[in-house]
Amino acid sequence: MRWIWIDKFVEFNSGKNAIAIKNVTMAEEHLHDNFPGFPIMPECLMIEAMAQTAGILVGQARGFKEKVILAKISKAAFFNYVRPGDTIKLYADIASIAPEAASTTGKIMRGDEMIAEVDLMFSHIDQNLAGKQFPKENFVFTDLFGVVLRASGIDAPAFGSASR
Amino acid sequence: MAMTKDEILKEIQNVLIDALGVDDDEVTPEAKLMADLGAESIDFLDIVFRMEKAFGIKIPREELFPAEALLNTADFVSAGKLTQKGLDELKKRMPHTDISKFAADPNVNKIGDLFTVQVLVDFVAAKLK
After folding, report:
1. The domain spanning residue A67 has which CATH number?
2. Which residues in chain B are contacts of A103 at CB distance < 8 A?
3. Tens of pLDDT along chain B (129 residues)?
4. Which of B25, B21, B27, B18 is nearest to B54 (CA)?
5. Are strands A68-78 and A113-124 parallel, antiparallel or unpaired?
6. Quick check: is A107 in a domain?
7. ipTM, 2 decimals?
């Protein structure tokens, strides 16, 4: 099982930027405990949602050949809570991309209101082996991501399924 | 118009404050990126990306930070130290850096100490020439 914290891409410009949306709902069980009586989307999951938005953008820029791993949270600043019933928009931009890595800048918005700024770095781990070996198959881009992309009307290759 | 070394230093300080989350008074010319400022491997790429933007130049990572490539070459390392061949290569790749102190005890764990704020400044100054 993989958890996916974005519902759909609403804009996708290869190698440049992407916008995804996430609808937050009380059906997400973790909201019952975070916090009892005051449900809010955990900030760490907003970072994960941005990592998925930006990570898919970075992966697509190299034809999903690289294993794109979140390597650094350069910045994460939060300005307000996200509550059940909210729709948030995740804006991700590629700042730099090189054979070994990429950096992205991002904003999370609710309507006109800025909810968070999240800047990330991703490593293309096969290019940063330093003597380590990783499995051949691309375990980062599994078919659930393909489902999200195709449901958003964006071409995606047939990814492998997650090996548990 | 060419930038002075002071202007370059100021830009580099901003790059490191953003990339490493350090305070401006920590980023002295002598500060070592790893030992003093806490840089880890992914930070070196972050620094390269930010420097490219700040100065409008292209920086191949291995040109600025050649240590990793050197350490992964069998000929250049023996018993945890850089060999003479490795030291010669390091000197060739870091022409603006005085490696004599490191050469006296070329322990691979100390190679990170070569990368100071000043090394970044000198690298950019040479690139902008």
Report:
1. 3.10.129.10
2. 45-46, 49
3. 578 999 999 999 999 999 999 999 999 999 999 999 999 989 999 999 999 999 999 998 888 988 888 888 889 999 999 999 999 999 999 888 889 999 999 999 899 999 999 999 999 999 998
4. B18
5. antiparallel
6. yes
7. 0.84
Considering only CB atoms, B45 lies closest to which of A100, A130, A131, namely A100
Residue the block writes with tokens 């990814």? A159
Query: Could you tell me if residue A111 is inside a domain?
Result: yes
Sketch out chain B's domains with CATH numbers: 5-128 (1.10.1200.10)
* pLDDT tens digits for range A93-118: 999 999 999 999 999 999 999 999 99
Domain that residue A29 falls in: 8-142
| Angle value at C-alpha A120, between B70 and B123, nearest 5 degrees | 40
Count of the separate structural domains present in chain A = 1
Return the structure tokens found at A72: 């650094």
Selected residue of B15, B16, B43, B45 to mutate for chain A interface (largest A Cβ count, 10 A): B45
